[in-house]
Amino acid sequence: MEIFGLDDWLAWFLLGIGLLVIELVIGFTFYAAPIALGAFAATIVAAFGDALEPQLVAFILGSLASLIALRPLVRQHLLPPEPEKSSNVQRMLGSRAVALERIDVDSGTARIGQEVWSARTESEDLVIEEGERVEVISVRGVFAYVQRHVEAPDDDPETPTQPADDAGEESD
After folding, report:
1. % helix / strand / coil in the chain, to the nearest 5?
2. Centroid of chain to Cα 38
3. 3-state secondary structure 130-168
4. In the Cβ-directed half-sphere of 142, how many Cα atoms lie within 13 Å?
5. Domain boundaries of the chain, sorted by first residue
6. What is the pLDDT of residues 68-98, one digit of tens each?
7. Is domain 88-150 in CATH 2.40.420.20, yes or no?
8. What is the Cα 62 distance to its own chain's centre?
9. What's the predicted TM-score (pTM) here?
10. Would you call 43 helix, strand, or coil by DSSP?
11. Which long-range contacts (CB under 8 A, 24 or more apart) does 69-73 make?
């Protein structure tokens, strides 16, 4: 039997190869490859000399089986890790640190937790002196980029938590 003037097994084989090439071009989404596997299943059936109907059944069942069974397995390996999985570096963002030496855009170190990091500021106008509290705003490579830590009123232990009584006011 012939398909488009080619032996049927050769037509199915070329269809499978073409689909694999398409899979490479579209960036490994694993949509065309399972259909290519179905075409290769039809190639095997056609090589035994069966009629077109069993070839079509092999093509459809082979494509569906590979889509259902293989695509989820392949997607696990092709997708990047989930964004909620933070690395230790990502967990440092927003943490407080202490400048161990003067920090500017070119040099400096800070103690972040129990580790000493090379620290930098993002602005040439910002210079942080030794001993000042800083906050980590980003990490790029081996540098922690910091800014001065601005303490909220709740952070200052000397600020009263209750409003002061107005003892100096005159009563009517």
Report:
1. 40, 20, 40
2. 32
3. CCCEEEEEEEECCEEEEEECCCCHHHCCCCCCCCCCCCC
4. 5
5. 2-78, 88-150
6. 988 788 777 776 666 555 567 778 889 999 9
7. no
8. 32
9. 0.46
10. helix
11. 70/30, 70/34, 70/37, 71/30, 71/34
